[in-house]
């Protein structure tokens, strides 16, 4: 199989059921999800074989597959609910993971700056790219019907990345970096 096909040389790309411009909002949405998936892969690489991250490594690998599912659900020319891969159950499972990891984290009173352990910093990059993917998906949803579970999944996923970035710091005994110019804004 050849990697190049030359079919996109004039600025069009294939989606499920047709072709669209490469800068179409549909391509922007699933393309940003693909970018996010690359950063998730990088985060997994930074974990190496460190056993304190075994649970997170497994979760992130599952998320990589689900990000492919998100992209697939957004790649239809016409809405095809019967073929959806992202379901409300995936969103609920993310919430469970967030709640479980949050129990390990120290109380937070101020905004957190990205940083600490290199893995934590990478997960904050995942969080921000995830938020952009969510925004692109919201924009796409204004133009055409989409699987609403994808938007919800991305919203919850960014929360997950925030929480596990803090969990990584906690497990590595590295303090989160608080935004010190802020008043205490969170109460537990």
Automatic annotation (TrEMBL):
Membrane-spanning intervals of the chain: none
Gene3D superfamilies tied to this protein: Cobalamin adenosyltransferase-like
Enzyme class: transferase
Pfam name, any one: Cob_adeno_trans
Domain Cobalamin adenosyltransferase-like, residue spans: 3-168
GO BP annotations, alphabetical order: cobalamin biosynthetic process
EC annotation from Swiss-Prot or TrEMBL: 2.5.1.17
Subunit composition and interactions: Homotrimer.
Name recorded for this polypeptide: Corrinoid adenosyltransferase
Native organism taxonomy: Bacteria, Bacillati, Bacillota, Bacilli, Bacillales
């Amino acid at each position: 199989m050849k990697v190049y096909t030359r079919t996109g040389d004039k600025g069009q790309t294939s989606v499920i059921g047709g072709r669209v411009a490469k800068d179409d909002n549909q391509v922007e949405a699933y393309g940003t999800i693909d970018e996010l998936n690359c950063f998730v892969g990088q985060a997994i690489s930074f974990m190496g074989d460190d056993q304190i991250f075994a649970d997170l490594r497994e979760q992130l690998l599952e998320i990589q597959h689900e990000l492919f599912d998100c992209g697939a659900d957004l790649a239809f020319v016409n809405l095809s609910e019967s073929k959806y891969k992202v379901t409300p159950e995936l969103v609920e499972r993310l919430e469970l993971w967030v709640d479980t990891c949050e129990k390990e984290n120290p109380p937070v009173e101020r905004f957190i700056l990205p940083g600490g352990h290199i893995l934590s910093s990478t997960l904050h990059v995942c969080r921000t790219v995830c938020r952009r993917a969510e925004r692109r998906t919201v924009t796409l949803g204004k133009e055409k019907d989409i699987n609403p579970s994808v938007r919800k999944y991305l919203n919850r996923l960014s929360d997950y990345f925030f929480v596990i970035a803090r969990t990584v710091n906690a497990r590595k005994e590295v303090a989160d970096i608080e935004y010190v110019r802020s008043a205490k804004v969170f109460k537990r």
